[in-house]
Amino acid sequence: MLTGGKIGLRARHEDDIPVLRTELYNDVVNAARASGVPWRPLSPDAKDSPLAVDAEEKEDRISFSVVELEGDTLIGIASVWGIDTHNRSAHLGIALRPSARGKGYGTDVVGALCHYGFVVRSLHRLQVDTLADNTTMQRSAERNGFVREGVLRSSAWVLGEFVDEVLLGLLVGDWKQGASQRVSG
Fold first, then answer.
1. Residue pLDDT tens, the chain, 185 long
2. Beta carbons of 116 and 81 less than 8 angstroms apart
3. What 8-state DSSP symbol labels residue 143?
4. Cα torsion for 100, 106, 112, 114, to the nearest 10°?
5. Distance between CA 176 and CA 63 in Å, rounded?
6. 83: three-class secondary structure by DSSP
7. d(C-alpha 135, C-alpha 17), whole Å
8. What is the pTM of this model?
9. Order of strands, edge to edge, in the sheet holding 89-96?
10. Where are the beta strands (DSSP E) in 40-102?
11. At 90, is the secondary structure helix, strand, or coil?
12. 44-71 as b/e, with b when 16 or more CB fall inside 10 Å?
C-alpha cells in the first residue's frame, strides 16, 4: 500500500464495489462530471463496470481504492490514467465519498499519486484535467506543486452543456524541488 499522511492507496477489493457504486457511480451528477463518457445505469453484476476489480493490470491505467489510514475506512478512488511510457507522462484522477470531502484527503491523495507516478513509475510529467468549477481539485493539485497551464474552453459535454476544463501540470524536477523545500522549510 502507498501511504500519505492520512490516506492509503491500495488495490480495489470486491467489497469496495457496492459502496463505490452507491456513493460515487449512482450519483448521476457526480459520475457525469467525473467521467468523459455518458453515465449509464449498470446492473449489480455488470462485468464492464468502471469500478470493476481488474484481474490484470492495464498498461495505460492504474486504479486504486483510497482508505483512511486510521481505521482502514474506504473513502474513495484514485487513478493514474493515460500512462504514456514513451513520453513518460500520465493524468491523475480522484473521487471521494461524500462523507470524506472537505477533510484534506484530496491533497493527500494527489501527493500519494505523485509519489506513485514519479518514484514508482519513473514518469516525467503528471497532469490534472478538471472542470473549471472544480476548485477543490485545483487546490489539491496546486498544494502539491501543480501549475495551472491553461483552460480548454467548452471542451467537456456535461449534463447537457459544454463547460471549460482547467489543465494543471507538474514535472518531476519541480516536484522533487518542492518536496525538498517542504522537508527543510
1. 999 999 999 999 999 999 999 898 888 888 888 887 888 888 877 777 777 776 555 789 999 999 999 999 999 999 999 999 999 999 999 999 999 999 999 999 999 999 999 999 999 999 999 999 999 999 999 999 999 999 999 999 999 999 999 999 999 999 999 876 755 55
2. no
3. H
4. 160
5. 24
6. strand
7. 27
8. 0.91
9. 2-3, 7-10, 61-68, 73-84, 89-96, 125-131, 161-171, 147-158
10. 61-68, 73-84, 89-96
11. strand
12. eeeeeebbeeeeeeeeeebbbbbbbeee
Q: Minimal CA–CA distance to 42: which of 21, 20, 17, 65?
A: 21
Which class for 117: exposed (0-12), middle (13-18), buried (19 or more C-beta within 10 A)? Answer: buried
- pLDDT given for residue 56 in this prediction: 54
Query: Which grid cell sits at 54?
Result: 481488474
The CA-to-CA distance between both ends of the chain, in Å, stands at 27
Q: Collect all residues with Cβ–Cβ distance below 8 Å to 29 and sequence separation of at least 6.
A: 159
Own/partner pairs for 132-138, CB < 8 Å, 24+ apart?
132/163, 132/164, 132/165, 132/166, 133/163, 134/33, 134/166, 136/101, 136/102, 136/106, 137/94, 137/106, 138/166, 138/168
